[in-house]
């Protein structure tokens, strides 16, 4: 059996003399798109079809969905197809004017079931028709998955596999961009949260950066991120310590330099960019922070020794 090929170019004046195989409307329009055969389009019912090179057969690409899917993508003589449609409308009592024109994508016909030679000169075309791209975008907006969209595109005999792949790339590009924007926004939020935490809980990180820069200038080796502190826990002796009233008292009880201790009304807070050994007496607790390189905040109950630590807060009143 001789293979049927679609007519690549249809003359406009000839199309005006043809009737629609579905609604019998006289005077059809020609749809021309680069890389694919011309389509004949009915402005009344929305039917679209290809014409064979010999001009005696047509293949429906789009038509009212009430006609079912049995007629989709099949080459038939115009008269035969017209009789089938007429019989279906009469036998099933269909109301043709009330039908809505949709693509025949409901038919389980894949591209491989259509003759490869049907693609003719547009088989090697890589750029898809704009109409097909718009259709794919609309399907995506309506909530169809990428797999469903690809299946619908594969049922269109006017598209080759390369064009389908290109369409999927085009419609997925905005999705990738939005995903990247979400990731960057999330990273920015996390970084902002880290900065806020660093401002709320003194860590000496910013001062440590300055110290490291000065060390590079002076030749002194200073690690930007110091090693995590070591915590030594001691056995309880049943003796509780109170809160020292002065900076000198805090330095004598906890360690470090007096001018580095600051009282906020509840806690004694100590910061030192070089790190210091701090003793937490029995009956008190300390909250300290360090970078590993993420910010870590931990709590220890006295008696304990933390060494070295850049920032610590000792809770005197619990």
UniProtKB/TrEMBL annotation:
Q: Which domain of life is it from?
A: Bacteria
Q: Which UniProt keywords apply?
A: Membrane, Transmembrane, Transmembrane helix
Span-the-membrane segments of this chain are: 183-201
Full protein name: Uncharacterized protein
The organism named in the record is: Bellilinea caldifistulae
């Amino acid at each position: 059996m001789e293979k049927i090929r679609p007519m690549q170019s249809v003359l406009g004046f000839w199309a005006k003399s043809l009737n629609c195989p579905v609604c019998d409307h006289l005077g059809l329009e020609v749809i021309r798109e680069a890389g694919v055969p011309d389509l004949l389009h009915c402005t009344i019912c929305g039917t679209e079809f290809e014409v064979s090179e010999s001009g005696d057969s047509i293949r429906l690409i789009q038509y009212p969905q009430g006609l079912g899917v049995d007629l989709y993508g099949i080459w038939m003589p115009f008269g035969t197809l017209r009789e089938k449609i007429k019989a279906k409308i009469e036998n099933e009592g269909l109301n043709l004017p009330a039908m809505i024109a949709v693509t025949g994508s409901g038919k389980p016909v894949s591209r491989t079931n259509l003759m490869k030679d049907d693609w003719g000169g547009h088989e090697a075309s890589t750029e898809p028709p704009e109409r097909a791209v718009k259709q794919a975008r609309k399907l995506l907006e309506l909530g169809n998955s990428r797999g469903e969209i690809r299946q619908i595109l594969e049922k269109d005999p006017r598209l080759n596999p390369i064009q389908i792949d290109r369409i999927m790339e085009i419609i997925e590009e905005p999705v990738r961009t939005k995903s990247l924007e979400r990731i960057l926004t999330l990273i920015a939020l996390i970084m902002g949260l880290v900065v806020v935490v660093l401002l709320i809980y003194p860590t000496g990180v910013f001062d440590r950066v300055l110290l490291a820069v000065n060390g590079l200038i002076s030749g002194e080796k200073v690690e930007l991120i110091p090693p995590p502190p070591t915590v030594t826990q001691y056995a309880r002796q049943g003796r509780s310590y109170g809160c020292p009233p002065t900076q000198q008292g805090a330095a004598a009880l906890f360690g470090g330099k007096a001018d580095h201790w600051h009282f906020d009304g509840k806690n004694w807070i100590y910061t030192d960019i070089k790190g210091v050994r701090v003793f937490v007496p029995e009956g008190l607790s300390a909250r300290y922070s360090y970078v590993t390189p993420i910010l870590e905040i931990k709590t220890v109950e006295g008696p304990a020794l933390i060494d070295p630590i850049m920032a610590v807060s000792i809770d005197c009143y619990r």
